[in-house]
Design brief:
heterotrimer; A mainly alpha (282); B mainly alpha (323); C alpha+beta (446); A: 282 residues; mainly alpha; MetI-like fold; 2 domains; disordered C terminus; B: 323 residues
Chain lengths: 282, 323, 446
């Protein structure tokens, strides 16, 4: 009986490993192609756009890249400012709003939540016209702020934080903090935020990746090359329809994705941790 | 006895201020813009003389009877179902595996990291990659099929409607299942480990633990996952737009691509694009409401306990509690 | 605690409300600035040369480059033109796919007539001998010239010398042009002869589309309605015939297989490609599998007149009618588009000497410049390509173009592929095409 269970567990484990390794391989695949293409010439790529082995054009791609108004340092700094700013704002204020929705009983609570959900469901294409018309009309182009501040109101994240708090937050802990004489703001910052670590880490990754890769809005709002983010610079490389330098485009893409790896690996320890971090509710 | 007489409800309002202020500054105008221009004659560039239509619902009627919109709607539903179901199944399966304390999957940290990775590449790169993979008359997929003798002639995948839809659905699935999995795992990490320990001591099996302990406590997160995946799926734009421009023969034209085409492909039909957006908004709202209804807290005792707890702590009588 | 929170909200409010003012204040720029908007760095790079040639030029050039590939150039440019102010473009560029919107279409009201910039248009046009299609496209609805290009993008047939010799015994462009044209009938006759020897005349049906589109009498829109010109409708039958009879390798332009045919790596050797000079420079030379005669197909090519005249691509330069520095803008635009001297932009551009000697040679709009420039290329076995491309510019016409072309072409070619593939009947393909144009652009069929 025990032997049988062990055997079945072992075969289940084998299945798990096979599936996971397969999924991991197809996850790596596009990155591999991207890095390989970063070392190939435009014409090699045009002849065969998928290759598994590197070529010898890395340095010439780099030369084309920096020759074409691609400034990795400026792009990195701007992207970093936008993504970090937007992520911090989104994570902190979404948690705060979610806490307001879960921990307090107030008259407009349910309508407010419904309202947040409604914003989430409006398709973006037309609203984006309104947004950049508005930004142009108040002459707020070539500033990074319109890419950072709106993140304070991120409905999807409020929704997630609310759902997370509903599942994990025990109101008793809030109560006991009050008995200890803690202010509401203090309770949130010092007690609730640490409980939310796994939720914050996941949402921070998503938000960071989203801002980092965001292209259309920055492309329209930032027209001064000192304000360009990395994706804008890559997009410019593809600008000339008739003579796109694909080798340098892939190199640009590869450079753009590298910082994301770093951020992701830093934050992933909260997600991959084997033990629960802040559970309170039983 | 500081607590007495303090009305905690006001903190609900105070803590919501940053969100509301930001919303008012940045999003109110764009959203009103979308809502209002659907009822106007706004088309074309740099127009300042915008009038409301005599028949306010004219744009809505035009869109609803528009053959291409109807096609886009059914494509969106098809492609969404084709990616949503496998995405959920795989994400749940992986969550069950990775959070099961008995399997102790080795290297699971690495797997969790890798599986999310397709989500950090831009959609444009992925679309271009798949366009080349399925190239005709020469391309890696054709090469492989011919090498294994599965086909004698190269196949023109870009002209096969179902292949195109399947590829789009696959890309959507592949870019998002890791994302969904991470959300679910974050939810599981919020559950107290003592619960799992107790279950293990009682000798519960892995499926039992997952279905009896993990899932019920994950309900609110599951609701989040279902609702946001649905919204994301029904607003799917980048991949169908970039992979084959909505083709072949409109097979991968989704409603978001349709809306984009109305507004930006030449005629600047902003009014119709806005009307189509509002139609999609209504459809998505109905489906979301349905999900909220299905996954509502069906244990009235629990809801009541929660409410009592809230009231007791907050000492206010005017709250409404529901999910 | 409450104070802290209040402070936070205040800071937030100040940040949100105050920054626009701050940002707007920063943007007040001195009048000595010229804003240039473009979708590549081509024109901004030209202006560096302009500054070098004019040491007393003391304006600062502020260039804004936004790629067209992600569909953001036009929305951003439109907003900048509509909003005006210090950041509005003084000079802006438009690509052939959308130039008509800015010269004759929805955004035509922003373009300044060249005459209002102090350019003596009539005499210079004659002196520089500018290709007529460039002028047609750059002329607004009231007959004023508002935009001109610097490149000439008249197209030719670029063919393989070795295949020509194998089939017709000669590679002389003067003879080959009588084999493949004039007219499509002779072209398909040639296709049959090539096929008999195991060659394909073209790589895919996309290759003839640019020629058919450019040569048709009328464009997609006639009197505000969709019009299917008989020449364009015939593309359906030609595409099907090319496929059914195996005259091509069935590739789609800009895919791996299309590029592969340039170095003879496809299913069968391909005789030719239709294109302007830039196709040779930017695409074919690099994809020929070599960089000197004898390597790959390099040096095995020649150009001759196509069966029908057409042009493909090009950049037009426009000025904003609200520009505060019209005289200076006029001088720059004249230097780019109408100066046919040896210190004009086009002379450098034609001879590949803009950034020093040895650059790529290209055809330019001015016939005068072309005459005194040398267009011989090793890629073409030493042939002077200007001999063919200069007259090619005269065959081209800009009268059949419309600002919706890019979108309508996508729908049309999609349906042509469906028909050629045998997925649809001819009538169904045409009906679906009309339906798509109607549904997406609100344009009824005739």
């Amino acid at each position: 009986m025990k032997m049988g269970m062990l055997a079945s567990r072992n075969s289940t484990k084998a299945v798990i490993y096979i599936v996971c390794i397969f999924l991991a391989l197809i996850s790596i695949f596009p990155f591999w192609i991207m890095f390989m293409n970063a070392t190939r010439s435009t014409f090699e790529i045009q002849q065969n756009s998928v290759a598994f082995w590197p070529s010898t054009f890395l340095s010439s791609n780099w030369k084309i890249l920096v020759g074409k108004s691609f400034n990795p340092l400026t792009g990195f700094m701007n992207s970093m400012l936008v993504s970090t700013g937007a992520t911090l704002g989104a994570v902190y204020f979404s948690s705060l709003t979610a806490y307001a929705l879960v921990a307090y009983s107030w008259k407009l609570r349910q309508p407010f939540f419904t309202f947040i959900m409604a914003i989430l469901m409006i398709p973006a294409q037309v609203s984006s016209i309104g947004f950049y018309q508005f930004m142009y009309s108040i002459h707020w182009t070539n500033s990074l702020w319109p890419l950072i501040l709106p993140a304070i109101a991120t409905p999807a994240m409020v929704f997630f934080m609310r759902q997370y708090l509903m599942a994990t937050l025990s109101l008793e802990i809030v109560d006991s903090a009050r008995i200890d004489g803690a202010g509401e703001f203090y309770t949130f910052n010092r007690i609730i935020l640490p409980i939310m670590k796994p939720a914050i880490a996941t949402q921070a990754i998503f938000s960071f990746v989203f801002s980092w890769n965001n292209l259309f809005l920055p492309l329209i709002l930032l027209t001064n090359n000192k304000k360009y983010t990395m994706p804008i610079m890559v997009s410019l490389l593809r600008g000339d329809i008739y003579k796109t330098e694909y080798g340098s485009v892939y190199l640009g893409l590869a450079l753009t994705v590298l910082p994301l790896f770093v951020i992701y690996f830093l934050l992933s320890k909260y997600i991959i941790a084997g033990v629960a971090l802040g559970a309170l509710k039983e | 006895m500081r607590r007495k007489g303090i009305n905690y409800a006001k903190y609900g309002y105070i803590f919501s201020i940053p969100f509301v202020v930001t919303f008012l500054i940045f999003s109110l105008y764009p959203i009103l813009y979308t809502t209002v221009i659907g009822f106007t004659d706004l088309r074309g560039l740099g127009r300042t003389d915008i009038n409301f239509l005599d028949n306010p619902f004219q744009n809505f009627q035009i869109i609803l009877t528009n053959a291409t919109f109807q096609k886009a709607l059914s494509n969106t539903a098809l492609i969404w179902i084709m990616n949503f179901i496998p995405q959920m199944l795989v994400a749940f399966l992986l969550t069950a595996w990775f959070t099961n304390r008995r399997f102790k999957v080795r290297g699971q940290g690495v797997f969790k990291v890798l599986i999310y990775m397709p989500n950090i590449i831009t959609a444009a790169t992925i679309a271009l990659l798949f366009y080349s993979l399925f190239g005709y008359p020469k391309g890696p997929v054709n090469d492989v099929l011919m090498a294994f003798g599965l086909t004698d002639e190269p196949m023109n995948f870009h002209l096969q409607k179902w292949t195109a839809r399947t590829v789009v659905a696959f890309i959507q699935f592949w870019m998002w299942y890791g994302h969904t999995m991470i959300v679910l795992i974050a939810g599981v990490l919020g559950i107290s480990p003592t619960l799992f320990e107790a279950a293990e001591i009682d000798g519960a099996s892995a499926p039992q633990i997952f279905f009896r302990i993990t899932l019920p406590r994950l309900k609110t997160i599951v609701l989040y996952t279902l609702v946001t995946s649905m919204i994301g799926g029904l607003q799917m734009f980048d991949i169908p737009k970039l992979f084959l421009l909505g083709g072949p023969d409109s097979a991968t034209l989704t409603t978001s691509v349709f809306i984009y085409n109305q507004a930006f492909s030449g005629s600047y039909l902003y009014n119709r694009a806005a009307a189509a957006s509002m139609i999609m908004f209504v459809i998505i709202s109905i489906l979301s409401a349905l999900l909220f209804f299905i996954l509502r807290d069906r244990d009235p005792g629990r809801a009541r306990r929660r409410e009592r707890e809230l009231r007791r702590i907050a000492r206010t009588l005017d709250g409404e509690v529901s999910v | 605690m409450k104070r802290k929170l209040g402070l936070m909200v205040c800071v937030l409010l100040i940040l949100s409300m105050g920054l626009p003012v701050f940002a707007a204040g920063k943007q007040e720029s001195s009048p000595k600035v010229i804003n240039v908007w473009s979708f590549t760095d081509e024109v901004p790079k030209m202006l560096e040369k302009y500054k070098e040639l004019h040491p007393d030029f003391d304006y600062q050039i502020k260039s804004t480059i936004i790629a067209t590939t992600d569909g953001a150039y036009q929305p951003a440019l439109d907003q900048a033109l509509v909003s005006g102010g210090a950041d509005a473009p003084d000079i802006y560029c438009a690509e052939s796919a959308f130039v008509l919107k800015y010269t004759q279409g929805d955004a035509a009201q922003f373009a300044a007539p060249y005459k209002s910039l102090g350019i003596s248009v009539d005499s210079l046009l004659k002196k520089a001998d500018i290709a007529q299609y460039t002028v047609d496209i750059g002329t607004n609805k009231s007959g004023e010239l508002v935009g001109l290009g610097y490149q000439a993008t008249g197209g030719a047939l670029i063919y393989r010398r070795s295949i020509a010799k194998a089939v017709w015994g000669t590679d002389d462009p003067a003879v080959i042009k009588t084999k493949v044209g004039p007219g499509w009938e002779k072209f398909f006759q040639a296709a049959a002869e090539l096929k008999a020897k195991g060659y394909g005349i073209l790589s895919g049906d996309g290759d003839i589309w640019h020629a058919i589109e450019g040569a048709s009498e009328k464009g997609w829109i006639v009197d505000g309605k969709l019009y299917l010109d008989p020449d364009r409708e015939a593309f359906l039958d030609m595409a099907k015939m090319l496929r059914d009879k195996g005259y091509h390798n069935d590739t789609r332009d800009w895919t791996d297989a299309w590029f592969a045919d340039m170095k003879d790596a496809g299913a069968k050797p391909i005789f030719g490609f239709f294109g302007p000079a830039w196709l040779i420079n930017y695409v074919m030379a690099g994809n020929s599998g070599g960089s000197a005669p004898g390597e790959g197909t390099f040096g095995d090519w020649a150009v001759c007149e196509p069966p029908v005249g057409f042009f493909w691509g090009g950049t037009w330069v426009l000025a904003n009618k609200d520009s505060k520095v019209k005289d200076v803008v006029g001088d720059i635009i004249e230097w780019i588009t109408l100066d046919s001297s040896e210190t004009g932009l086009q002379y450098y551009w034609a001879n590949g000497t803009l950034n020093g000697p040895g650059g790529t040679k290209d055809t330019v709009a001015s016939g005068t410049v072309m005459e005194k420039s040398d267009g011989s290329l090793a890629f073409l076995g030493g042939q002077d390509m200007f001999d063919v491309f200069v007259p090619a510019g005269q065959f081209a016409t800009g009268r059949n173009k419309h600002q919706y072309d890019e979108t309508i072409n996508i729908y049309w070619r999609d349906q042509v592929r469906e028909y050629a593939q045998g997925n649809k009947t001819r009538a169904a393909a045409i009906a679906e095409f009309k339906q798509q144009v109607k549904d997406n652009l609100a344009i009824e069929a005739h």
